[in-house]
Amino acid sequence: MSHTELVVWMGLAIGLVFGATGQLSGFCLMRGLANATTLSDWRKLRAFALAMGVALLGSQGLAATSQVSLAASLYAVPTFSWLALPLGGLLFGYGMVLANGCGARALVLLGSGNLRSFVVLVCLGLAAYMVLSGILAPLRLWLESGTTLRLPAATLPQWVGLPDWLPALLLGGALCAWSFASPDFRRSPTDWGGGLVIGALIPISWYTTGVVGFDDFEPVRLASLTFVAPIGESLQYLMLSTGTRLGFGVSVVGGVLAGALAMALLRKDFNLKSFDSPPHMLRSMLGGVLMGIGGVLSLGCSIGQGLSGFSTLSLSAFIAIAGIVGGALLGIRGPLALSKH
């Protein structure tokens, strides 16, 4: 088995674990924010914070032991658009509320029988590729070229002049400590277990693409979990697979869907669901489109920037995360909040 084939199989395994864990635990940033702000239930949000802490500590541990160079990731660059990055985060966050979950959550829900998520995923994938390389790509390039900002550093440790391990240890430790500070969270093993497992999948993914996929002549691009471009790539692969090579991102997407389906069947939780009304369908379609556009502009989704990007401590990740959270809060409780349907 070649190193590229091994990366694909490991991506499938990572996706299976993510999908099964997401289906069992209900892991979702949007749900965490909604529960915290409307129900005063912080368990889902603490689970996401725990995943951030675990992802950060594990990823920086790989970097500290020189196994992976996170500086080679797409997140750790000193240039970004000061307009497109936060705008993309806002669009993604608001779209996440419209669609009742991010792209990763839509895959998990589809595996559980939620047909609404199929529409969300198709709209997300099409919109993402329209902005990446389709009809909207020139507009994106024009927007980015006129608003590019270059910083003297790409990551938080470089910005403040500290060794990488110190901010990682402090921030990662603080996130984990805050998560487990709640007795309700400690009494919810599905939540803290989901946070631990999904957080651990981030450094495992870095290791898969950066170490297992390393080859002097044919290296695999360093990447971790993200779900905007890979969903679009998956749609493209389904249509044009002849003569193309299966990659890590597409195999993860397939694994998430299969893992969620397996767990739903095991728990007898598979249940076909559809739209309640035409406005409900339009809302989901718009949510998918906004997530596709926003995810490309912000260089990632709530998983791609919220966990993978954050694990590199890149400055762009902090900006994108702030935009995603801000957009989600606008849709949940802000002036642009909408009713459920």
What report would you give on this structure?
With 341 residues, the protein is an all-alpha fold. Helix content is 68%, strand content 2%. It contains 16 helices and two strands. It has a two-stranded antiparallel ribbon. Helix 1 packs antiparallel against helix 11, helix 2 crosses helix 16 and helix 3 runs antiparallel to helix 9. The chain is globular. The model has no long low-confidence stretch (mean pLDDT 95).
Short note summarizing the structure:
The protein has 341 residues and is an all-alpha fold. It has 16 helices and 2 strands.
Features:
16 helices; 2 strands; mainly alpha; two-stranded antiparallel ribbon; 341 residues; globular
SSE series: HHHEHHHHEHHHHHHHHH
Category from helices, strands and their pairing: mainly alpha
Strand order of the largest sheet: 1-2
Q: Please provide the count of β strands.
A: 2
| Tally of individual helices | 16
Catalogue the unreliable spans: none
What percent of the residues sit in helical stretches (DSSP H or I)? Answer: 55-70%
CA(first)-CA(last) distance: 49 Å
Largest sheet: 2 strands, antiparallel
The outline comes out as globular
Question: How large is the radius of gyration?
Answer: 19 Å
Q: Overall pLDDT, averaged?
A: 95
Beta-strand share of residues: under 5%
